[in-house]
C-alpha cells in the first residue's frame, strides 16, 4: 500500500488503541445483563430483550444530566454481585476492547458497590482481576493481545475512599494500577477525600480524579492543587479558565496553564460528555481546542453500553467533526500510553513495538 489508508470505522478498528477511562459497570453486553439478571433473580430491568434493553440504556443516558445518567448504573451493578457475574463481565470487557483494536486498557469500577450478596472487598477485586486475566488469555489466543489494568474507584458521596485507596495499594502487584473517585460532583468536592489522596501519595500510588465534568473549574483546581492527581477524569470544564485575548487568541488562566504545562492528562470522553451535558454537542466539544493548545488530550469511551460506543467510534466521531488524520489519532494514542498507570518500560514497549508500527502501516 502506498499512501494512507482511508479513515473509516473498519480501518480505525485496525489501529492500535489505548483507553484510560472505561467503566466496567458501564460496558456490559445487553445480552449479559439479561442473562445475569435471570441467574441472580434481579427483576428490575426496564426491558427484557437484547435490542430493547440496549436502546433503553442509550436513551436513558441521553438525559443531559450527570445525575440522571448515573441512575442507569443501578441495573448493571445489580447483576454484578456474584463471583461468576464479576468474572464474566470483566472477561467480556477485555474481549470486547481487544476486538476493537485496544492494546492497552484501564478499566475502573467501585468495589464498594458489589457487596450486596456477601462478598468482601478483597473477594470482589480478586474475582474481577481473574476475569480480566481470563479475557486477556482468550483475546491473545484469538490474535488480539491486550493488557488490562484495573483502577479501583471510591464513590464520592460515600465515606469509604480511604478504605478503597488501601485496597488499591494492597492489590498493586496483582493488576490494580491506581485509584479514582467518581459520582455526582456537585456538593462532593475532591478535597472531601483528601485523606485517601494523601495515603496514595504516601504509598507512591497513582490516582486520577473525576473532575470538571458536571462541575466547573473549582473541582479541577481542587483535584490538581490540593489532591495532587496524576490525571483528570474528563476535565472538559478546564475551558472555563481559557478566554479570548487580543485577536481572539486563547489565553490560559492559572489553572489551565498549570494543567497544560505539568502535562496532566485529560481523560476526555466525547460521546459521554455530550450525553451528560458537560458539552452541548460534538461540534462544540473542546477536544480540538485543547489539542491545538497542546494539552495532553486522550480519547476514551467512559461507558460503552450507555453511549453505545467503542474506541473506534469515538475516534471516528473526532475525525468527522474536526478533520483529524492518522497522525492525529496516533498522537492521541501515544498521549494515553505515556499517561498509563504501569511501569515506564511497559509503556515504552507498547509505544515502540505495537502502537508506532501499527500506525505506520495505516499511514503508508
TrEMBL record:
GO terms for biological process: adenosine catabolic process; hypoxanthine salvage; inosine biosynthetic process; nucleotide metabolic process. One of its GO terms (molecular function) is metal ion binding. GO terms for cellular component: cytosol. Its cofactor is Zn(2+). Keywords: Hydrolase, Metal-binding, Nucleotide metabolism, Zinc. Residues 16-356 form the Adenosine deaminase domain. It comes from the Bacteria. Its EC number is 3.5.4.4. NCBIfam families: aden_deam, PRK09358.1-2. Belongs to the metallo-dependent hydrolases superfamily. Adenosine and AMP deaminases family. This is adenosine deaminase.
Amino acid at each position: 500500500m502506498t499512501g494512507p489508508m482511508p479513515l473509516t470505522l473498519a480501518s480505525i478498528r485496525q489501529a492500535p488503541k489505548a483507553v484510560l477511562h472505561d467503566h466496567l459497570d458501564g460496558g456490559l453486553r445487553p445480552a449479559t445483563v439479561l442473562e445475569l439478571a435471570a441467574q441472580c433473580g434481579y427483576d428490575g430491568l426496564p426491558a427484557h430483550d437484547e435490542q430493547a434493553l440496549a436502546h433503553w440504556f442509550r436513551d436513558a443516558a441521553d438525559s443531559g444530566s450527570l445525575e440522571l445518567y448515573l441512575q442507569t448504573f443501578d441495573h448493571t451493578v445489580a447483576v454484578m454481585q456474584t463471583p461468576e457475574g464479576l468474572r464474566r463481565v470483566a472477561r467480556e470487557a477485555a474481549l470486547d476492547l481487544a476486538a476493537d483494536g485496544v492494546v492497552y486498557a484501564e478499566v475502573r469500577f467501585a468495589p464498594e458497590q458489589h457487596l450486596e450478596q456477601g462478598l468482601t472487598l478483597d473477594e470482589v477485586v480478586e474475582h474481577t482481576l481473574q476475569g480480566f486475566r481470563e479475557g486477556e488469555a482468550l483475546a491473545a489466543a484469538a490474535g488480539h493481545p491486550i493488557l488490562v489494568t484495573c483502577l479501583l474507584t471510591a464513590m464520592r458521596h460515600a465515606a469509604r475512599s480511604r478504605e478503597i485507596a488501601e485496597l488499591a495499594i494492597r492489590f498493586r502487584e496483582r493488576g490494580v494500577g491506581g485509584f479514582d473517585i467518581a459520582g455526582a460532583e456537585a456538593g462532593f468536592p475532591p478535597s472531601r477525600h483528601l485523606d485517601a489522596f494523601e495515603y496514595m501519595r504516601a504509598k507512591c500510588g497513582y490516582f486520577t480524579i473525576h473532575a470538571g465534568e458536571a462541575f466547573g473549574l473549582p473541582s479541577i483546581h481542587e483535584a490538581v492543587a490540593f489532591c495532587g492527581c496524576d490525571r483528570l477524569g474528563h476535565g472538559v470544564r478546564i475551558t472555563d479558565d481559557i478566554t479570548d485575548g487580543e485577536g481572539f487568541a486563547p489565553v490560559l488562566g492559572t489553572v489551565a496553564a498549570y494543567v497544560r504545562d505539568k502535562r496532566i492528562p485529560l481523560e476526555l470522553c466525547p460521546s459521554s460528555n455530550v450525553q451528560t451535558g458537560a458539552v452541548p454537542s460534538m461540534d462544540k466539544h473542546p477536544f480540538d481546542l485543547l489539542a491545538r493548545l497542546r494539552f495532553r488530550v486522550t480519547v476514551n469511551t467512559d461507558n460503552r453500553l450507555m453511549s453505545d460506543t467503542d474506541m473506534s467510534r469515538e475516534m471516528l466521531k473526532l475525525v468527522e467533526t474536526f478533520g483529524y488524520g492518522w497522525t492525529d489519532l496516533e498522537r492521541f494514542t501515544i498521549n494515553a500510553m505515556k499517561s498509563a498507570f504501569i511501569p515506564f518500560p511497559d509503556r515504552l514497549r507498547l509505544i515502540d513495538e505495537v502502537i508506532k508500527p501499527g500506525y505506520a502501516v495505516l499511514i503508508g
